[in-house]
Amino acid sequence: MPTISHVLQGAVQRLEAAGSDEPQANAQWLLAHVLGVSRTWVLANGGEPFPADKEALFSRLLARKEAGEPLSHIVGMQPFCGLDIRVTPDVLTPRPETEELVERCAAQFERQGRYTFLDMCTGSGCIAVALANKFPNAAVLAVDISAAALRVAQENARLHRVDTRIQFLQSDLWENVMGTFDLIISNPPYIPTAQLAGLTREVKHEPRLALDGGEDGYAVTRPLCEAADGYLNPGGLLALELCQGQPWPLARGLMEIGWKAEVKKDIFNIERFVFARRK
What are the beta bridge partners of residue 167? Predict the structure, then answer.
């Protein structure tokens, strides 16, 4: 009977041959999912025999990963801010950069404060759920144009028992939004259309609606920012995640119309975030 270590090594080799992103980590996570254990357990128990009744399932899931399907779609979950977020092909897979956006924003508010937060382009609801989890007295509005994405977001809110404090709204940006907020946070579609063809196989499995930022990448961000002032409470914060090269042009544009804006780098040392308040 092959050992866990032997099966893992074979899986890594197959993913390397397929050109998969991070073959070692993906093989470990996939094996942990099939065995119902943690990734740490897999690494610490490589000498244990691999259960024969798990071979067929592991082979099927590994073939999906070889074909470029995101790991989150295969296992149905993605860790985010200490929470397991349900992921389907209808939503963008939460990423570490977005976790950092949430943590940077959370540091600006008192944990017991009675705030109103708006998560625009909520997708899986990872931002809204993480904020509701961190701020027990906050009310959160999660907005998306996609009804399918909102269903996933609602499932995540129920999963983490914050559904009573998150309102979900289908809206094309500000179309159906009412009220004002202490924080408007968004990870909008920001990839220029011409760049979509050059994305990795894994990212190409993500919903185009969550990726495509139009010709210049600002098709969603621009109208989001143009109207944001009317939806922020005095002293409120606008926080955005963008792609490389976009934050400073956006920040300068905001400063030209009376905002105080700053750009921050992400964990990979890439200028990624814009934080802005009205003067």
Answer: 141
User: Nearest to residue 225, comparing CAs of 255, 200, 194?
Assistant: 255
Residues at the annotated binding site for S-adenosyl-L-methionine?
A: 144, 187
Output the pLDDT for position 21.
Answer: 82
Report the distance separating Cα 132 and Cα 27, nearest Å: 32
pLDDT at 234: 96
Q: Where are the domains of the chain?
A: 4-68, 90-278
- In this prediction, residues 222-246 reach a mean pLDDT of 97
Give the residue ranges of the annotated binding site for substrate. 187-190
Q: Please tell me the class of the 4-68 domain.
A: mainly alpha
Q: Please tell me what DSSP assigns to residue 26.
A: H
Indicate the angle between helix axes 96-106 and 126-134, nearest 10 degrees. Answer: 30
Tell me, yes or no, if the pTM score tops 0.85.
yes
**Rounded distance between C-alpha atoms, residue 108 and residue 3, angstroms:** 49
The CA-CA-CA angle for residues 140, 145, 146, to 5°, reads 100
CA distance 9 to 1: 15
CATH topology classification for 90-278 = Rossmann fold (3.40.50)
* 28, 43 contact by CB (below 8 A): yes
Bridge partners of 17, per DSSP, are none
Query: Using one digit for the tens of pLDDT, what is the confidence trace for 18-76?
Result: 998 889 999 999 999 999 999 999 999 999 999 999 999 999 999 999 999 999 999 99
- On the CB side of 187, CA atoms within 13 Å amount to 23
Place of tokens 């408007």: 184
Please answer whether residues 130 and 107 qualify as being in contact, where contact means their C-beta atoms are separated by less than 8 angstroms. Answer: no
Binding site membership: which residues? Answer: 144, 187-190
